[in-house]
């Protein structure tokens, strides 16, 4: 777990055909026996792991996501991204991981030694059109006792004296059990709907970020010698990666599309720079998302990108584009064509 590449893992999840919508579609995505290669007609792409249609939420958690949460519990920062075209299972996958991670964190706490003390806090927000909105604003008590106004107020970024980027006035809740976390998630999800007239369209155009910060005081029975370690876990359901321009996008939609492209491209460039041993510069400043994550991507931080795809032929073009993005992200060189027929 020391090389730069080891800190970034890229997996693919290919969901099943959707029974009502895709029952007549032809399946063109096949997983090879190595469990790492996805084959599409005459192309193949290899990643750290590929999860197929039969994979459960528990599989994805234990074989890919759990490692990140374990590292966060050890005091590292860890980030999981769900990337892909709208409808490929990003929210489904992110929700499963959230549920499992909540249980994992509090299970760890309940099994810990007596001389360890924990403080767990959570925030939930979205970035839409490069604007940050607090999804927990209006909830009763934040960490500092303030109640943030519910509404469409956008939040600004601020650089602290130590150079760290923080979101000014973001609600931050202390949580004491799995149920507290579940309630925050549900409340934020409602707020997301509440703030939007066309929920489906809107949600596919925003990035949502659920952040859990875990402080562990080790040797808490002696405050003079105890040490505190802090790990931050970000679970990010990214905006749909589909090329929005192909349906004659104009006006607001075009602006949205440009912002989504900007932030997804910035993300890819940042992660690619982090995994390239020759890279000397990491372009964090290009988007809000990468600025916010600048202390959680790179260094000793752990990153997992889950590229979500559907298996149907009708999505072939977008699926290839998602797999290319995921490959670029880890500088993975794939053989483009294995045969011509
Ligand atoms: P996205 O967030 O990428 O737009 P969703 O998570 O909303 O996609 O998934 C689209 C649809 O596919 C939903 O109806 C969801 O329940 C279903 N789905 C996604 N992934 C799976 C899966 N692994 N198994 C079964 N159904 C899935």
Characterise the protein shown here.
With 341 residues, this protein is an alpha/beta fold. The protein has one domain: Kinesin motor domain (Kinesin, 3-Layer(aba) Sandwich), CATH 3.40.850.10. It is built from seven helices and 15 strands. The strands form three sheets. Strands 1, 5, 6, 7, 8, 9, 12, 13, 14 and 15 form a ten-stranded mixed β-sheet that branches. A three-stranded antiparallel β-sheet has the order 2-3-4, covered by helices on one side. The protein is globular and about 65 Å long. Mean pLDDT is 86; it is low at 194-199 and 335-341. The structure holds adenosine-5'-diphosphate. The site of adenosine-5'-diphosphate has 13 residues, from helix 2.
Protein topology:
Layout: E1 8-14, E2 29-31, E3 37-40, E4 43-46, E5 49-51, H1 57-73, E6 78-84, H2 90-111, E7 116-128, E8 131-134, E9 154-155, E10 157-159, E11 165-167, E12 173-175, H3 178-194, H4 199-203, E13 206-218, E14 227-237, H5 251-275, H6 288-292, E15 302-309, H7 316-329
Helix pairs in contact: 1-2, 5-7
The structure holds adenosine-5'-diphosphate.
Oligomer: single chain
Secondary-structure class: alpha/beta
Specify the overall morphology: globular
Number of helices: 7
List the main descriptive attributes of the protein structure presented here.
341 residues; alpha/beta; Kinesin; 10-stranded mixed β-sheet; 3-stranded antiparallel β-sheet; 15 strands; 31% helix; globular; disordered C terminus; binds adenosine-5'-diphosphate
Brief digest:
With 341 residues, the chain is α/β, with parallel strands linked by helices. The chain is 31% helix and 26% strand.
